[in-house]
Design brief:
By secondary structure, the chain is of the alpha/beta class. Helix content is 45%, strand content 18%. It contains 14 helices and 7 strands. The protein has a 7-stranded mixed sheet, with helices on both faces. Strand 1, helix 10 and strand 2 (146-151) form a beta-alpha-beta unit. Helix 2 runs antiparallel to helix 3 (41-54) and helix 3 runs antiparallel to helix 4 (58-67). The site of S-adenosylmethionine (SAM) has 22 residues, from strand 2.
Length: 280
């Protein structure tokens, strides 16, 4: 095992079963100072925070939470509760997401055309929802291509599974992901499409890291999301969507992506931006 990982697991060992919390805490802190860029760093931060809470060191836990906020706290707690509800009424979302009252649905052909899909491409539809874009992407990339329909919602995954069978969409692969990771293998896709889902990412830094890892060098990340302009956007949008386009762009650039362009579209409530993972 590489030395960095051994350091994390040593802390983990002292932490497990509260063997030696003080020692574990010291090791987690050393790990975070020396290896803040390592993929295990968010896990170390969360374990250390939990340890402080468990050992009732409230002030230290709060200071720690503030320092490592994006790894520990959801940026929008509860935003996914409707989708995670075991009694999810999928049909009500089919009606909402695939109806003429939604501009994304009205302009779906334009949104699809702007992706620049080619036969044989491997595409991830992250937050696939009811599959509004999964099926047209599947047809565009053809039998030599693949679509990964990535979802955190069991209810949506069940619906996508039934639809995949009904449509004989053999190139569609369902991926049950977590709120922190898309669970896609490294360097496995050419394009990641995220429609009205970025504002649902509760741990954007971690989810973006997993998208970055999943893209092949030079691969594209396409984001379609709500414009959030105080004084202009609807009240619902201002409450539901936590960040506007400029902030979203900053977060995505901070995750190692290069901004390519904003596309011109007929959309009025949503923007369409393209990023890429630097080649090499
Ligand atoms: C507003 S819907 C959009 C669905 C679809 N992209 C569309 O435009 O019709 C957001 C979807 O993202 C899913 N979701 C939320 N957070 C996610 C995450 N971190 N990773 C993957 N899917 C997520 C939800 O379960 C929900 O189905």
């Amino acid at each position: 095992m590489p030395a960095v990982e051994a350091m994390f697991y040593e802390a983990f060992w002292y932490d497990l079963g509260a063997q030696d919390p003080a020692r574990a805490m010291k090791l987690y802190e050393d790990f975070l100072v020396k290896h803040s860029e390592h993929e295990l760093a968010p896990r170390a931060a969360r374990r250390a925070h939990d340890l402080l809470v468990r050992t009732k060191q409230g002030d230290r836990a709060e200071a720690f939470r503030k320092k490592y906020e994006s790894w520990i706290t959801s940026v929008k707690p509860g935003i996914n509760s409707p989708f995670l509800d075991p009694k999810l009424d999928v049909q009500s979302f089919v009606d909402r997401f695939e109806g003429e009252s939604r501009e994304i649905f009205i302009h779906r052909a334009k949104i699809l055309a702007l992706m620049g899909l080619k036969e044989g491409m491997r595409v991830a539809d992250v937050g696939a929802g009811t599959g509004l874009f999964t099926w047209p992407i599947s047809r565009k990339v053809g039998k030599d291509g693949a679509v990964y329909a990535v979802e955190i919602s069991e209810g949506m995954l069940e619906h996508l599974t039934k639809e995949k069978e009904r449509r004989s969409a053999d190139n569609v692969h369902l991926v049950a992901c977590t709120e922190r990771s898309t669970m896609l293998p490294p360097a496995s896709v050419d394009l990641v499409f995220v429609c009205d889902t970025y504002h649902h990412f509760e741990y954007p830094a971690e989810t973006l890291a997993s998208i970055h890892a999943a893209l092949k060098p030079g691969g594209a990340l396409v984001i379609v999301d709500f414009e959030r302009i105080p004084g202009k956007s609807r009240e619902w949008t201002l409450g539901h969507v936590r960040a506007g386009k400029d902030e979203v762009r900053k977060e995505i650039e901070a995750a190692g992506f290069r901004f390519v362009r904003e596309e011109k579209t007929p959309l009025e409530e949503n923007y369409y931006v393209r990023f890429e993972k630097a080649a090499g």
